[in-house]
Amino acid sequence: MKVKVQNIDGKASGDIELDDAVFGVEPRADILHRVVTWQLENRRGTARAARERSDVNRTGKKFVRQKGTGGARHGDRAAPIFIGGGKAHGPRRREFEQSLNKKVRALGLKMALSSKAKDGLIVIDSLDLADAKTKALKGQFDKNGWSGKVLFIDGESVNDGFQKAARNLPGINMLPAVGANVYDILKHDTLVLTKDAVAKLEARFNG
């Protein structure tokens, strides 16, 4: 698959041949759904459990006599009504982690990249911009028609000024090539890859 390469200012900068084994896979909704669900569930933290009356360390000795006090007939300091007692009907520990075959995860990422290659993929030379100021950067994005949510996958290196300026723009996110994932790719309207990132993604699957 041949794609045009452009500079950050929108000017043409030649062509690049994308590997069809990575960017030409037919997307399947069931695979993408499985990978996105796996990814989001594994992002969730473990729900912390409360200590119930069997978990707290309190005496089991009967602390008042059964009759004659005018009070209730208590026999356990771990009861929820006492300070230091267990929590009644508290939250239980819940694990959200899921397992997913590595081949399915890799296939899902290929399908996400392929879906963007069909619609919403832009390959640029690099992310070096002489005037890396927020206002200048926004002007370049508007000129290039990069509106909505834009995800930059930049390989291993990116201009610090560009990164700081891009943080100030709503809907703009950046990831290294090693951090490319299905959920973040699909939730953005436009995917912008540097030539360095393309090489690293293809090596990731072919190496």
Can you characterise this structure?
The chain contains 7 helices and 6 strands, in the order E-E-H-H-H-E-H-E-H-E-H-E-H. With about 210 residues, it is α/β, with parallel strands linked by helices. The chain has 2 domains: about 150 residues, Ribosomal Protein L4, Chain: A (3-Layer(aba) Sandwich), CATH 3.40.1370.10; about 45 residues, no CATH class. The protein has a 6-stranded mixed sheet with strand order 2-1-3-6-4-5. Strand 1 and strand 2 form a beta hairpin. The relative contact order is 0.18. The model has no long low-confidence stretch (mean pLDDT about 85). Part of the 50S ribosomal subunit. InterPro entries: Ribosomal_uL4, Ribosomal_uL4-like, Ribosomal_uL4_dom_sf. Pfam families: Ribosomal_L4.
Shape verdict:
elongated
Question: What is the residue-averaged pLDDT?
Answer: 86
Residues in β-strands, percent: 5-15%
Report the major sheet. Answer: 6 strands, mixed
Q: Which class best fits the helix and strand makeup? A: alpha/beta
**What value does the Rg take, in angstroms?**
28 Å
Number of strands: 6
Number of helices: 7
Span of the ends, CA to CA: 20 Å
The CATH homologous superfamily of the largest domain corresponds to: Ribosomal protein L4/L1
Number of domains: 2
Helical percentage: 25-40%
Order of strands in the sheet with most strands: 2-1-3-6-4-5
Low-confidence segments, ≥5 residues, pLDDT <50?
A: none
**CATH fold topology of the largest domain:** Ribosomal Protein L4, Chain: A
